[in-house]
Amino acid sequence: xxxxxxxxxxxxxxxxxxxxxxxxxxxxxxxxxxxxxxxxxxxxxxxxxxxxxxxxxxxxxxxxxxxxxxxxxxxxxxxxxxxxxxxxxxxxxxxxxxxxxxxxxxxxxxxxxxxxxxxxxxxxxxxxxxxxxxxxxxxxxxxxxxxxxxxxxxxxxxxxxxxxxxxxxxxxxxxxxxxxxxxxxxxxxxxxxxxxxxxxxxxxxxxxxxxxxxxxxxxxxxxxxxxxxxxxxxxxxxxxxxxxxxxxxxxxxxxxxxx
Length: 259
Prior knowledge:
The chain has 259 residues and is an alpha+beta fold. Helix content is 29%, strand content 30%.
């Protein structure tokens, strides 16, 4: 998304009343200078937003990929809906709800007039949802949160996909290891190493620099704990604690694991 074009459109908004997505927080642009955009609310409050804040959001907007403004801004301030309203009023931006949260999407073409808002249709929303899920399946900064062992990989993968509302399971490499992803987290699905693991066995997963060292330290704290190597690449060790609970330790080579 081109910032210089957006900034020009912000200038054109001066004097306009911009409808909000909720319909309850309309704002009027009173002035745009080199550093700030000046607003007035429906209750005649004067507000000032830095243009750098708007640009931060614009820099995150990629074609046909929805963004959650609140997440981009880190929940900064109670009037963070104002930048959302401003950008939603651009003629090539629409809004939609994904996972019960408002998102904006840049479509790269004019779909409505400047100073008006438009809700994305079902087709655009479905395409955006898939794009978001596909992004979650390939991002390396999303941690693995679960490791699941099962003798019935198909049924277990359907269970994980339903729970996580994520993309279809992806095979990792040429092994029988699968990854189920959503924008919020990842789960790794492996076959049972032996009959001791009656599936599905669902364990919380902790990513560590060294699984052997982490397992050793747990053993020092809990001498009665047991551990076993569940998978070599990626290296995953299952630890069973004395109280019957367990967890998985994952040592991940990201260059392979997230291919």
